[in-house]
UniProtKB/TrEMBL annotation:
Source domain of life: Bacteria
Biological processes annotated in GO: carbohydrate metabolic process
One Pfam family matching this protein: Bac_rhamnosid6H
Nucleotide-binding in keyword set: no
Chain ranges of the Alpha-L-rhamnosidase six-hairpin glycosidase domain: 202-528
Record carries keyword Cell division: no
Full protein name: Alpha-L-rhamnosidase-like protein
Lineage of producing organism: Bacteria, Pseudomonadati, Bacteroidota, Chitinophagia, Chitinophagales
SUPFAM superfamilies hit by this protein: Six-hairpin glycosidases
Every Alpha-L-rhamnosidase C-terminal domain range: 530-587
UniProt keywords, alphabetically: Signal
Entries under InterPro entries matching the protein: 6-hairpin_glycosidase_sf, 6hp_glycosidase-like_sf, Bac_rhamnosid6H, Bac_rhamnosid_C
Length: 591
């Protein structure tokens, strides 16, 4: 599908959503949906968009009328028994069908059966997949397909003239196999059960580059899927609250949805299960990310009551961190796992440099919050520790992750970091998590055009491979000869999902919907639309657009008082003309 066609369809759907307040995620045609409300989420039932594959030589003898699954359903078995798909097996041949639901989603599968001759339950194998390759795979070691975190490969029995709902995972594709020998199964419907929070997209982004528009939306949708009972990192694997991973995710939530209770709910869970001096998720950096998220969340929401609830834990954590500095003014965080992200995890000097920078960033955020809480003693303690840490500037040792943090912590000039490291080799050594901080460091260096180029190249490559959400990891070296994730891998092609990955995401275990990869969404809002929060609660917002090679950019930004609307247009003389509308309670500073 052309990007222009995709965006036109999306625009029409978003208008419908906002008008009727149905508030669907901006990806699905409502004519294929029915809705059931639960406490935090809704369940929508979706018919497949297409049948990608079925058993070879299925000439009607083993599979007939499979196209009926593409029609809207109602989830109800009935006595009319009309227009059924019939699957027939022999002792040696067992029919199977692979469905494509069009977009990555979270949930399960609904199967509605008819009146077949045996009148008994029939066994099916159901396989969910984030790619065609995963849905077609077995659980075996060669490509590392697993049932970790969520069971995605199972054998079930469907009832005669009834309905079965199975599954709770992240997927786009589903394969069903008829397992019983000499069996006949009549199926009326096979529908995805889409489970998500029913939220309006208050933030928006549109510019003269349709690829960037799609990237912004894809990042927003990736995080939206992970906003379940808690804020997860992945909807197939890593259905956990990883606090470090949450920072790009909460930045995206602030830019797209504004306040949502899933953020404090998840922050509080991590706090409550991690007594000091333990580190959140066992990683020294993740407790620091908790402080940084608290600072950013307070800036956006202005919720002093919630911040006050963190006062005791915050004071204890900051006091602990201030003690973790050795006589050489170096971070001494050796009592937990030393970690930035997986691609940098073997670069110990790089990790040290990154943690040194993170200590400064964290203690600065901690000092700011302590002053709000009128805890001047802790604020002074943090400031004294920062002064010590700034006397020691470690080398990044070739790590773009560490380099970005050194720039953001003002340990090394951002222009030098960008020129000598971040721009070297383009997006080589980018990662989906720390790519956000690499982009932020480029913006700090004033290289907004470089940031746009890197977003197009790196995140755009995932879209060209068929992605509808952004991935746990991605490497440009994987591209040559790779098949798209929405097609069968042909001889001579690489399986982009099954053949790559490392550490905890080898092969098909790799998550193709990971919230930490959403960095371009808040980055485009902050730096292209130019919207940044200056005073807590969005009472003061600075608007300083950087269009780079774009002709125009416009969008909205949610605040506690309503949305801020901006539109920037490049005039013939090269100057930028801006139109800004904001709620009366929000002061706008133009730059």
């Amino acid at each position: 599908m052309k990007i222009s066609t995709w965006l036109a369809s999306f625009s029409a759907l978003l208008l419908w959503v906002n008008t009727l307040r149905a508030q669907l995620p901006p990806v699905f045609d409502s004519s294929r949906m029915a809705t059931v409300q639960t406490t935090a989420t809704v369940r929508r039932y979706l018919s497949p968009e297409k049948i990608t594959w079925q058993t070879p030589n299925a000439d009607g003898a083993s599979i007939s009328n499979a196209a009926r699954f593409l029609l809207p359903g109602n989830g109800q078995a009935d006595l009319a028994n009309q227009n059924m798909c019939v699957l027939k097996s022999s002792v040696t041949a067992h029919p199977a069908i692979l469905f494509d639901f069009g977009k990555e989603l979270h949930g399960g599968l609904q199967l509605v059966t008819g009146m077949y001759k045996s009148g008994k339950p029939i066994k099916l194998r159901v396989r969910f997949g984030e790619s065609v390759s995963e849905a077609m795979s077995d659980i075996e070691p060669s490509k590392n397909a697993t049932n970790d975190h969520a069971v995605r490969d199972m054998v079930v029995e469907v009832p005669w003239l009834g309905k079965l709902e199975v599954g709770n995972t992240g997927f786009r594709f589903v394969r069903i196999d008829l397992l019983d020998d000499k069996a006949e199964l009549q199926l009326k419907e096979v529908r995805a059960i889409f489970v998500y929070r029913d939220l309006p997209y208050l933030g928006s982004f549109k510019c003269s580059d349709e690829l960037l528009n799609k990237i912004w939306l894809t990042g927003a949708y990736t995080v939206h899927l992970n906003m379940q009972d808690y804020l997860w990192d992945g909807i197939k694997r890593d259905r956990l609250v990883w606090i470090g991973d949450m920072h790009p995710e909460t930045s995206t939530i602030s830019a797209v949805f504004g306040y949502n209770e899933v953020v404090p709910r998840s922050l509080d869970l991590a706090r409550d299960i991690t007594p000091i001096p333990q580190y959140m998720n066992g990683m020294v950096s993740y407790s620091m990310w908790w402080v940084l998220i608290q600072r950013d969340w307070y800036q956006h929401t202005g919720n002093s009551a919630y911040l006050q609830q963190q006062a005791s834990y915050l004071k204890g954590l900051l006091g602990h961190l201030c003690k973790k500095i050795d006589t050489n003014n170096s971070e001494d965080l050796n009592d937990g796992t030393r970690f930035l992200d997986w691609p940098s995890s073997e670069n110990k000097p790089g990790i040290h440099a990154g943690l040194q920078a993170m200590m400064i960033m964290t203690l600065k955020a901690g000092a700011d919050l302590s002053k709000v809480l009128k805890d001047e003693a802790t604020a002074r303690q943090c400031e004294a520790a920062i002064a010590r840490l700034k006397r020691n500037v470690p080398d990044a040792n070739g790590s773009k992750q560490a380099a970005a943090l050194l720039a953001l912590a003002d340990l090394v000039p951002a222009e030098k970091i960008n020129r000598e490291m971040l721009s070297a080799g383009g997006v080589k050594d980018y990662s989906t998590f720390y790519g956000y901080y690499m982009l932020q460091a480029k913006a700090k260096a004033g290289d907004y055009q470089g940031g746009l180029n890197d977003i197009r190249t790196y995140w755009g490559a995932m879209l060209k491979l068929g992605a509808t959400t952004f991935w746990e990891d991605f490497n440009m070296d994987w591209l040559p000869g790779a098949a798209r994730i929405d097609t069968l891998v042909q001889p001579g092609q690489k399986d982009i999902h099954g053949d790559y990955g490392a550490y905890c995401y080898k092969g098909l275990r790799h998550s193709l919907c990971h919230g930490w990869a959403s960095g371009p969404t808040p980055w485009l809002t902050e730096h292209v639309l130019g919207i940044s929060v200056v005073a807590p609660g969005c009472r003061v917002i600075r608007v300083a657009p950087h269009l780079g090679d774009l002709r125009f950019a416009e969008g909205t930004f949610p605040t506690p008082y309503g949305v801020v609307k901006v539109k920037h247009t490049r005039l013939a003389n090269g100057k930028i003309q801006s139109t800004i509308k904001a709620p009366a309670q929000v002061k706008i500073i133009r730059e």
